[in-house]
Specification:
CATH architecture: 3-Layer(aba) Sandwich
CATH topology: Rossmann fold
Number of strands: 7
Largest sheet: 7 strands, parallel
Order of helices and strands: EHEHEHEHEHEHHHEH
Distance between the termini: 58 Å
Shape: globular
């Protein structure tokens, strides 16, 4: 088995999860155990090839990471590949939520199964994986568990009630896990960043809508553009450093001031 530290990354085939997998292998020399559902197979193969070219071990595990069974089976696979006390970084980058309204009485009303699925994937699974990793003694000394979130919980976006509520639950889980794992030397944090272009976004939005999204963010963000997945990924190794060890149970704002001008844009709309 490899003596290098391992990163376990849920949602590693594309978007932010893929960028973090590649950056943590490049910047920190980590081996990577990535979990994905197989929706972006070409991107998953590309991530695998890129990390292998860096001379790091890469395992791409195809499964549903958002269930208790998926967490248990995934942790078993990590143990077989990496051995005990090998996981220095765990990243929860699952985006599998349902959109819809709560009480419309129409086809867009969220079904209980959709609510359950959204909460399992985007919130509860952090706990499932933490339990599975601990039960198998997989966490390396001073490990970091990192969830990813966005500013939705601070405002309102049409049709995202289930996703927003799940993100709020994720934040509470992070705080409680930090209290439980802190005495063992581990940290649990939440990284909050704004809109980034991912394959999922490109799949949901038309090219015209994507262009509109970019124009809006030119006004929203003080820097005048959208954040990128690479910028988010480059910050993750910083959180592993000694300088960041006092972050625990924290929701770290990496939005770049995205929400600062909301009221101004509403009252003084730009062309």
């Amino acid at each position: 088995m490899s003596t290098s530290p391992w990163a376990v990354i849920l949602g590693a085939s594309s978007g932010t999860g893929a960028a973090i997998a590649q950056e943590i292998a490049r910047a920190r020399g980590f081996d990577v155990f990535g979990v994905h559902r197989g929706r972006y197979l070409e991107q998953a193969v590309q991530v695998e090839q890129d990390i292998a070219r860096m001379g790091r071990r890469i395992v791409m595990h195809r499964a549903d990471a958002g269930t208790p069974e998926g967490a248990a089976q995934g942790a078993d696979a990590v143990l077989a590949q990496a051995g005990p006390r090998s996981v220095k970084l765990f990243v929860h980058s699952l985006a599998s939520g349902s959109v819809g309204r709560l009480v419309s009485g129409q086809k867009d009303q969220l079904h209980p199964r959709q609510l359950e699925r959204t909460f399992h994937a985007m919130a509860h699974s952090l706990v499932y994986w933490a339990q599975a990793l601990m039960a198998r003694d997989l966490l390396a000394p001073q490990a970091l568990l990192l969830g990813l979130t966005n500013p939705l919980t601070e405002s309102h976006l049409h049709n995202t009630a289930a996703i927003t509520a799940a993100k709020a639950a994720l934040e509470i889980y992070v705080r409680h896990l930090a209290m439980e794992l802190g005495p063992m030397g581990h940290r649990v944090n939440l990284l909050k960043f704004g809109t980034v272009m991912t394959p999922a976004v490109r799949h949901v939005y038309s090219p015209e809508a994507q262009a509109h999204l970019e124009r809006v963010h030119q006004h929203l963000n003080p820097v005048g553009r959208m954040c990128t997945v690479e910028e988010v990924a480059r910050f993750v190794p910083v959180l592993l450093g000694e300088e960041a060890r006092w972050f625990n149970g924290a929701t770290i704002d990496f939005t770049g001031g995205m929400t600062l001008q909301l009221l101004d844009l509403l009252l003084n709309p730009r062309p």
